[in-house]
Description:
The chain has helices spanning 2-21, 28-55, 82-107, 112-141. The chain is mainly alpha-helical. It binds fe (ii) ion (2 copies).
Amino acid sequence: MLKKAYFMEVETVMSYITNSINPDGVRAQEIIESLEQDIQEELGHARQFGQRIKELYGVVPGSLDFSAEQSYLQPPDEQTDIVHVIKGVIEAETGAIDHYNKIVEFCDDKDLVTQDMVIQILHDEEGHRRLFEGFLREYKAEGLA
Ligand SMILES: [Fe+2]
Ligand SMILES: [Fe+2]
C-alpha cells in the first residue's frame, strides 16, 4: 500500500509539472501557480512514503516497477482548456484521498506511526482537492464546465 502511494505521488509530481507548464491564457496563471506549489508538496509526500517504506524494512521500488495511471491528467487538445486540468487534478486528489483512507483504516491497531503520517498527508490532499473544486465552481457558475 505504501509503495502504491509512493508511485501515486511520483506520478502526480510528473503530471503537475506537465500541467503547470502547458496551459495558456490569462486565467491559466492561477492554476499554474497553484500547481507549482503542489509539486513541492507532492514531492515531499513521495519522500515521506519512501522513508516510511525503508523504516519498515522495505525497499523503495525503482522506476521499472512504475506503471502510469493518470490518463485524466494528459495534456488536453487545446492548451487553453483549463477545465480539463482542474477536473484532472480533482480526480488525482480524489484517488489519493481514497487510497490514503484505506491505509489509515488498515493501520488501525497495527501501525499508528504510519497511520499518523498518512492522516497528515490525507489532510494536505483534502486541501488540494477543495482548492481545485473552488476553481471548478467558478467555471460552472459561468456555464463553462
Ligand atoms: Fe500528495
Ligand atoms: Fe495533492
